[in-house]
Amino acid sequence: MTEDARWGESSPWSVGVEEELMLVAPDTLRLETGSEGIVQAAEELELPGRIKTELFACVVELNSGVCETAAEAASVIGHLRSTASELAAERGLRLMATGTHPISRAEDQPIVDEPRYRDFVAYAGVSARRQGVNGLHVHVGMPSAEACFQATEAVLPWLPVVLALSVNSPYLAGAATGLASNRAEILAQLPRSGAPPALRSYAEWEQLVERLVSLGLMPDYTMLWWDVRPHPRFGTLEIRMPDQPTRLERSGAFTALLQALAVTALRWEPPAYDPPGRFVYQQNRWAALARGAAAELVHPRGDRLVGARELAAELVELVAPAARELSTEHVIAPLASAPTEGDEQLEVGRADGLEAVCARLVERTLRSS
Questions:
Q1: For the chain, how many structural domains are there in total?
Q2: 3-state secondary structure of 112
Q3: Which of 64, 108, 287, 354 could form a disulfide with 49 if both were Cys (CB 3.0 to 4.6 A apart)?
Q4: What's the pLDDT score for residue 12?
Q5: 123 with 131: CB under 8 angstroms?
Q6: Per-residue pLDDT for 368 more than 80?
Q7: Is residue 178 scored above 70 in pLDDT?
Q8: Could you give the CA distance from residue 61 to residue 280 in angstroms, rounded to a whole number?
């Protein structure tokens, strides 16, 4: 891992964004296979980022590459959404951005015929086939391995409130399950998910990865499906917590928030080694996926329960100095009080049914209103 690490190679606080978008039939709005043709067509185009396959043949991944600012990353992702939409339309398909499809079952969807996906399904079985869930991944460039480890530990207690604000998967296989984020609950069915174990240094993280690889449990660290992890080949901290937003501006806002949080984390004193804190994290993660913005969370200081909205306002205040320096304060601030997209799905579903939810999601994937 040390040989191909790229710490400090990009500009300070550079960002990269990965979105996972579903492909649906234009008439039924159910999941539909088609990613490989779209990806092949995209490779013939000059794009600011990449369009890639994902586990399921009904999903495409949009990858911004390295961007200097959160605004640039949002612009690149917007371009990729438009391009993917055009390529999908040429093949009789449409895009849908959300954490889970409201109606279609993941287990019924074909897997992309690539070795890494075949190997994953062979290893994880039904747990893999349930992973028809989409998220937003944000990479923030780190100056060194130890800085990345410090940022990993410092941002972790704040990630459940990020999940609470981003919940966008209240429906699963045609039912409102009562969970605000079915995606987060389904991800937890994978091995090596949730929070990374409590470690004392980046060197310990490397030792853990090397041990798991030597045991044959995984080929490399990219098979650690934690909510946050170092990504040495990119030289980044990768935060994988939010549900996939529907609106492009929500993706941009969460990108800016997580970038500012990572910058802020490196200005704090390095957090203490705290194994019991992982239990608190798991409690908060569950509360956030169950209740969304209505959740009660243990404060990162561990001294009291606090509502997710109150904690969100505190988080926005904490990152405000970094956000001002990054010119993103105006983008981040509305997240603390805006309705979650999951609540909007439920409102439409109660009034007009799941077909209307699907139609609204497709519409808002390319337009805000």
A1: 1
A2: coil
A3: 64
A4: 85
A5: no
A6: no
A7: yes
A8: 32
Residue 25, CA atoms < 13 Å, CB-side half-sphere? 9
Give the mean model confidence (pLDDT) for residues 30-56: 97
Cβ contact 187:193 at 8 Å? yes
Q: For position 309, which CATH number holds?
A: 3.30.590.20
Q: Is the pLDDT of residue 3 over 90?
A: no
- Domain assignment present for 17: no
Compute CA 179 distance to the chain's CA centroid, rounded to the nearest angstrom: 17
What's the half-sphere exposure (Cβ side, CA atoms, 13 Å) at 45?
Answer: 16
For 184, the domain range is: 107-366
Q: Taking residues 136-165, what's their average pLDDT?
A: 98
CB atoms within 10 A of CB 334: 12
| pLDDT digits 0-9 by tens, 238-248 | 999 999 999 99
Is 249 in a helix, a strand, or coil?
Answer: helix
| CA distance between the termini of the chain | 45
Question: Is 50 a residue whose pLDDT tops 60?
Answer: yes
- Looking at the domain assignment, is residue 1 inside a domain? no
d(CA 358, CA 366): 14
